[in-house]
Protein 1
Amino acid sequence: MPQPSPIRVAFLLFPNVTQLDLTGPAQMLAGLGDATIDLVAGSRAPVATDAGFALLPTASFAEAAMPDILCIPGGMGITDAIEDGETMAWVARAANHATWITSVCTGSLLLGAAGLLRGYRATCHWAQHHHLAAFGAIPVHARVVFDRDRVTGGGVTAGIDFGLALVAAIRGEAHARLLQLRLEYDPAPPFDSGSPERAGSEAVARFRAMAARAAPDRDARLRAAAVRAMSEGGRA
């Protein structure tokens, strides 16, 4: 059996990232075989996640090798990341090199802000899905969306499905099935409330109220980012 070709994967790491958006797909993509996983941030200082612990970058923006797969996770810190010029400049450089330009959860909004989703089908966390169209994307409600070299995953846990689907696209279904077995990825959640349709209107309203308290200016900032992005050119 021939050895798989080496692949370099880069995850953007920013303060208040949702760690499962990153660690879930990172575990899957590590199963590509001969894969190097980089966590890239502005510096090598530990980066706080939304789970109360920090992740350690493996490279700074200045040090990072250009990736074959670029992945942008999401989280409450995504708006600050979008507004950070150094972060967006690195994403643009990495995207120019990458074979696959990808995201999980609200990471797709950063891709949109970088002009990388204009005219592409894409998904996002359900609570922020309505922002996609403003960035020129074609919104799709799905766990994982492939459109040419763009791959986007829905909210948080969808990143695991995204990672497995991307492994299948690169290494083949047989390889991905073996990886799924190795990781015993056989989900059977104890509750059926993982989508707004099944969770019910009361739970959805409670979640939206909590999110609004946590980030009362997020929608306005994302709308402003969309206006800026649409006034500039994006990569085809």
Protein 2
Amino acid sequence: MEYNDEYFMQHALKQAQLAFEEDEVPIGAVVVMNNKIIAKAYNQVEKLNDATAHAEILALTTAFSAMGSKYLPEACLYVTVEPCLMCTGALYWSKIKRIVYGASDVKSGGLRFFVDEDGLIKPEVWPFHPKAELVKGIMEKECADLMKLFFKNKR
């Protein structure tokens, strides 16, 4: 089995599907260390009646607990949709090494606050830990399609 970004994003997408089935905004996340998933979560805002119960936050909290640490400098977070501003802040404080997301979120994504006129993140306002790497667009269509279907069903 080849472990790559698509492999782990598929696992995040499975989490998003669980959210979809529970009538939550379908965003899923997994935290990976040494090619092993150490945490997984999906949005549970409605279920927990908690505006902060985003997939990224829940996955990070589970990973911190699993590792017995407040930092994850060797970990990678895979999330199906661009993190919001709150989750971007949590990722900064986690000192996570790598953030990989599927679909961009023009309306609620947090990265729009840090980009220049060309859509590139300005180095002087990099929103993550200085050593963190950002990868976007992994399984973008599949991640975006699930979000579109969810909101289409809401209308």
